[in-house]
Amino acid sequence: MGDDLYLDISAHHGGYASDFLLAFVHPFADKYRPVLTPVLFILTHLFSGEYAFYRDVNLALLVVNVALVGYLAWLLSRRWAVSLGAMVVAVLSRFDWYYVLQVYGVMEGLALLFALLTVIAVQRAYKQQSFRALAWANVAFVLAEFTHERYIVLCAFLITAGLLIPLRGGRWVRILAVILPAALALLNYSIKVFILRINFFTGGGGRSASLSLPEIAGFMRDGLITVMGNNVGPPYLSALPAASQGPLGSMLAALVWLPVVALGLLVLARDIPAIRSEPRRLRKYALGLALFVPLLFSASTTFRQEYRWLYAPYLVTILGCCWALGHITRARILVPVAAVILFSGIGTVDLFYSQYVDNIYFFAAQERADAVHRQVIDGHRGDLSSATVFFVTPDSTFQWFDTADGGIFMVYAPGTVVDARFVADALQVCQAVSPKKLRLVYQVGQSSLKDITATTVARCRSLRQ
């Protein structure tokens, strides 16, 4: 698709990710990501247009992240059945499609990897009351925020940890534990705003992300509802909104929110009576909220909420359920039963919505780009230099988002000068002037191309008579 094609072209023609050393200091489209960009330099110069290799790297990252989710689930629950269930739903999740199937998915995978390492280090600091573990959490945090700036919100989690964890070492250690993540977050902001003089949060297409509190609150509400199994949003973002399915959508959502709410009520019923005598029990709830709410906030600071950003708060929800499963009862048999109910419900919802993945604009664009590669480039490789290729669609995003304004030919037909044109209707093909005798005409569909060369040429001839 367009973003991935632009990346490959840029990396090989003196633009973004084209120089390893500059990758550490080079902002691009108002985005400064000095951990990600060197990685993209390496990948693009190793793989170029070989999409399968990028996908395999993303798959490997997903495997590592899922293993870390499983490890965290075990740390929180001490139950292997719970850990296994968490890993299964982490793989099946409808929120991780982009991570694997897009070249830029490596950005999301790397950022999530560092975020998970941050959480693991904080959990260790909590158990060991160790500043050293918390220091490692800050290292992982820096890597996360400089991979994708949305993870700057992890500073709230680390500040909360510094305030609540009874660290060994005295008062100054506690003060440093609070100041350090705040300083590292400020460092990221200062480099972007005061040194590089670019926007701090920049969304798709170079558009500045929204800082409208009512809009953010609305996206946070929708994001929470979506994480709980009730898809919200237009199909090009959500694949399929639950409301379009009527009672079926509500039933599917109930498979997630009912067991999650039940677990929450059970663990609260267990802890509330003991909080007065053991107020430290509140620490775990505070840490959980300090992780979930900022991640949901960062996924909602936007002009459109893309589902890939909900994967992190979704995983926090899963991990919270794992912690609850490990604490609601001592009866060994009940925990696996509760885990099966919870994870089978979540998995069912994700598998249902995965049938409609091509509705999401990232993947519809990828399908159409694949069709251009298969039908046009592979199907007419010997004729491309002597042909004018017309793509008929009223949707101008196909030109930019699917084919990178014809850049797909630079990547997959290098050395061939292709005359690619994008028109709103077939009549414009008849009116077009081209020195090349051969014309190839394709009607662009939702996720495919249709060769209409013969009918269009016949129509043009009849109009000239």
Blueprint of the fold:
Blueprint: H1 2-12, H2 36-47, H3 51-77, H4 80-92, H5 97-101, H6 105-128, H7 131-145, H8 154-164, H9 171-195, H10 213-227, H11 235-238, H12 247-275, H13 282-300, H14 311-325, H15 334-354, H16 361-378, E1 387-392, H17 397-402, H18 407-412, E2 419-423, H19 427-431, E3 438-444, E4 449-451, H20 453-464
Cα-based radius of gyration, to the nearest Å: 25 Å
Q: What structural category characterises the helix and strand content?
A: mainly alpha
What is the element string, with H for helices and E for strands?
HHHHHHHHHHHHHHHHEHHEHEEH
Low-pLDDT stretches: none
Question: What's the number of helices?
Answer: 20
Strand order of the biggest β-sheet = 2-1-3-4
Q: How many structural domains can be distinguished in the coordinates?
A: 2
Query: What is the CA–CA distance across the termini?
Result: 40 Å
Largest sheet: 4 strands, mixed
* Shape by Cα distribution: globular
Q: Give the total of beta strands.
A: 4
Average pLDDT score: 91
Please give the share of residues in helix. Answer: 55-70%
Strand content: under 5%
In words, what does this structure look like?
- A 4-stranded mixed sheet has the order 2-1-3-4, with helices on both faces.
- The chain starts with a helix and ends with a helix.
- The protein is mainly α.
- Helix 3 (51-77) packs antiparallel against helix 4 (80-92), helix 4 packs antiparallel against helix 14 (311-325) and helix 13 runs antiparallel to helix 14 (311-325).
- The protein has 2 domains: 50-359, no CATH class; 362-464, no CATH class.
- The chain has helices spanning 2-12, 36-47, 51-77, 80-92, 97-101, 105-128, 131-145, 154-164, 171-195, 213-227, 235-238, 247-275, 282-300, 311-325, 334-354, 361-378, 397-402, 407-412, 427-431, 453-464; strands at residues 387-392, 419-423, 438-444, 449-451.
